[in-house]
Structure to design on (264 residues):
């Protein structure tokens, strides 16, 4: 059975010292409430500058460490960028690609993501590919088309053999961050079924094993409704998980709802 995936992107928050303190406290809370098991996979995605510190703190803990983006080239004249091998050398095993803030604020395109997905998986990094539509696209009824284009373009070259290293997060742009509106669970359910269908068409039956995570204003009050949906295999949380207490609280509520949905 697929594990339940749960993690947080810190965005441009937390120095190395703050990240270390977060991990120390989170580890203590997880020891107090033993949750980790074969049916749970946690991950943390701090800023680049916190990766090496976080990697040391997470040593011997089954929590994946991820970077927030990377360049597709192995090296070169790309000031400000880092490569897949640098991400790995910093101690991360995962890279998030295509976060809405990278797409909207920094001009990341589907074509660039196509190259990044290949560079990351070739370096044996796990990829958490984020997709999602703008409010204006939802308003004119093209959410499914937008997400299908994002998935089909970014994953165009990915061989089936690399699928064990792929996770996908649906994060509608209108729902994330300050000012975001939490999505209705019915919308999330529809979009996750749609993504599964797109992936099944592209990759065949093995696409059932691709974890589909939901993110966007997930909090303690709404996490259970999302986590209980079919085709929601995990939660990707920002603000509500930026304290260790918040992280564990949303995790516990989401995990309980997800596990309850298995036995229904
Ligand atoms: P949020 O962030 O949970 O604070 O809305 C989600 C994200 O941007 O990944």
């Amino acid at each position: 059975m697929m594990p339940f995936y749960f993690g947080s992107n810190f965005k441009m928050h937390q120095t190395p010292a703050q990240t270390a303190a977060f991990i120390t406290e989170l580890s203590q809370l997880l020891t107090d409430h033993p949750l980790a098991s074969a049916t749970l996979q946690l991950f943390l995605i701090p800023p680049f500058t916190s990766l090496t510190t976080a990697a040391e703190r997470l040593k011997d803990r089954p929590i994946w460490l991820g970077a927030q983006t990377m360049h597709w080239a192995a090296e070169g004249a790309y000031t400000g960028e880092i490569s897949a091998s640098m991400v790995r050398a910093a101690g991360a095993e995962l890279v998030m690609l295509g976060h809405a803030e990278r797409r909207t604020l920094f001009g990341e395109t589907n074509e660039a993501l196509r190259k990044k997905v290949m560079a990351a998986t070739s370096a044996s990094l796990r990829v958490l590919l984020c997709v999602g539509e703008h409010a204006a696209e939802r308003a004119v009824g093209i959410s499914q088309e937008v997400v299908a284009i994002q998935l089909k373009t970014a994953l165009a070259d990915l061989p089936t053999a690399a699928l064990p290293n792929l996770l996908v997060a649906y994060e509608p742009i209108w729902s994330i961050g300050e000012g975001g509106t939490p999505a209705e669970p019915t919308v999330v359910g529809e979009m996750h079924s749609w993504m599964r269908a797109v992936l099944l068409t592209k990759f065949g039956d093995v696409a059932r094993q691709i974890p589909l995570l939901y993110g966007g204003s997930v909090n303690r009050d709404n996490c259970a409704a999302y986590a209980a949906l079919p085709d929601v295999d995990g939660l990707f949380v920002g603000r509500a998980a930026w304290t260790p207490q918040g992280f564990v609280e949303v995790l516990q509520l989401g995990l309980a709802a997800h596990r309850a949905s298995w036995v229904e």
